[in-house]
Amino acid sequence: MRPLDESLLFETCELNKTAPILVGVSGGPDSVYLWLRLLEMGFTIVVAHFDHGLRPDSAADAAWVGEQAHRLNCRFVLGRAEVGVIAEREGLSLEEAARRMRYRFLFETAQAYACQAVAVGHTADDQVETVLMHLLRGSGLGGLCGMRFRTFLAEYSTTIPLVRPILGEWRKDIERYLEEKGIICCQDVTNRDLRFLRNRVRHRLLPILETYNSQIRRHLWQMAYSLQADYQIIEQEVGAAWQRCLVDEGPNYVGLNRAGFCAEHEGIQARLIRRAAERFTREQRGSDFASIDRVVRFIRMGCPGQIDMEGGVQVVLDGVHIYVLRQGEWPINPLWPLIPPDAVFQIGVPGQLTLGEGWVLEAFLSSPQEMSALGGHDAFTACLDADTVQMPLRLRTRRSGDRFWPYGMEGPMRLSDFLVNVRLPRWVRDRWPLVFSGDTLVWVPGYRIAHPYRVTPSTQKIVVLKFYRST
Ligand SMILES: Nc1ncnc2c1ncn2[C@@H]1O[C@H](COP(=O)(O)OP(=O)(O)OP(=O)(O)O)[C@@H](O)[C@H]1O
């Protein structure tokens, strides 16, 4: 366990005695204890209390904290908001609205009074309850790590940390300390309300778990603490993988390199998607395992297309890149080499076609030896047996009645059926480029070449076709 001592405050919480610390004091025993202990240890404290206006006695709590601050000669800042009204307006639960308003107030006050950190009174018991709540709701490793001694809440401040100096102290020891000092704190009656999951965990679940192992609280606390160190290693790995895969990023999208992504470890792949999706999601809780797993499998399959995640996030694959974006907000860069619906182009071999938006289609001749030396290629490169194709090749969009014999299939099928099967997004089908030899469709870029045009052991020369963006 980590009791409140100087090494915890200076090293783990990274506090110093040169600037004040803002302590969020509800008036309850935990935050009062935190405040008194920090004062005893010689820190300068700014006391901040937020009146949520949700209980009839909330003004009395505020007054009590103010009186104590006066008695202890600490600066006191009181904040107030109509949490009920805000919750309704923003479609949040009362607890969530209260939490957001409170943290916003605490960090704004810390900024205004040049405080080095915001300190709150979460205890070891709160930690154990939090870990169990995460477990019950189905969390990953991140949730099982529980709360940190020192962290940043980026939505409130990226420069002022949130510290929890009494995260290693048990409530019973805190109560004993206050009793010895004769301090009677405010009591929050909602702490006994069993409609709240936290209270059920505290008053019902934990006593039952203790009948299995009397040390369960200690074990859960230790587990969270050691997982935090493990998690840090994973986060470093994910950060490095992110740098390796990131190709493009904007306010409403992130672009990753698919080949790089697929080369990462499976666990890292899932975390990369989670990290990208978290930027754009409307959900407060992260995406669940099943949804992340579905996206990872879709990316590994490699066919261009799109897939929706919960929280308004979309993942779009163009065969080379993975775009994670806010639904409906397409990146400025076009993803695919789309062409006007009625356009027809011709391309000789060797030859080059400049399409819109910086896209280029290049054609050249190669030999089987050269191609095998080059190794694998992406979905927007095709190799055809040169003796089977009729030059120049033609590029156009689909027309009714088009048929296609996909590589590896028994025979031709309707192109429209093929496009449905591969789930090419409906809105791009009329602008998707198709490569024809004479009247025969030989390549659906991003997906398949036509079976009769494949490279075989008897192939002498290969026509290589390649779409790429020149900008
Ligand atoms: N109204 C408030 N004003 C200022 N800070 C608050 C307020 N409510 C909570 N906090 C801060 O957030 C911490 C955690 O809040 P929570 O509601 O979980 O409190 P708690 O575990 O009941 O602790 P306490 O005994 O201090 O009320 C508190 O210890 C306190 O530091």
From TrEMBL:
Principal location: cytoplasm
EC number(s) stated in the UniProt entry for this protein: 6.3.4.19
InterPro entries with a match to the protein in the record: Lysidine-tRNA-synth_C (IPR012796), Rossmann-like_a/b/a_fold (IPR014729), TilS/TtcA_N (IPR011063), tRNA_Ile_lys_synt (IPR012094), tRNA_Ile_lys_synt_N (IPR012795)
Catalytic activity, reaction form: cytidine(34) in tRNA(Ile2) + L-lysine + ATP = lysidine(34) in tRNA(Ile2) + AMP + diphosphate + H(+)
Gene3D superfamilies: 1.20.59.20, HUPs (3.40.50.620)
Keyword presence, ATP-binding: yes
Any Gene Ontology CC annotation: cytoplasm
Domain of life assignment: Bacteria
GO biological process, one term: tRNA modification
Residues that coordinate or bind ATP: S26, G27, G28, P29, D30, S31
Signal sequence coordinates: none
Stretches assigned to the Lysidine-tRNA(Ile) synthetase C-terminal domain: 393-465
Keyword Nucleus carried by entry: no
Principal EC category: ligase
A GO molecular-function annotation: tRNA(Ile)-lysidine synthase activity
Location(s) in or outside the cell: Cytoplasm
Record key words, sorted: ATP-binding, Cytoplasm, Ligase, Nucleotide-binding, tRNA processing
Short name of any one Pfam family annotated for the protein: ATP_bind_3
Record text about domains: The N-terminal region contains the highly conserved SGGXDS motif, predicted to be a P-loop motif involved in ATP binding.
Function: Ligates lysine onto the cytidine present at position 34 of the AUA codon-specific tRNA(Ile) that contains the anticodon CAU, in an ATP-dependent manner. Cytidine is converted to lysidine, thus changing the amino acid specificity of the tRNA from methionine to isoleucine.
Family to which the UniProt record says this protein belongs: Belongs to the tRNA(Ile)-lysidine synthase family.
Protein name per its UniProtKB record: tRNA(Ile)-lysidine synthase
Source organism of this protein record: Thermanaerothrix daxensis
Name of encoding gene: tilS
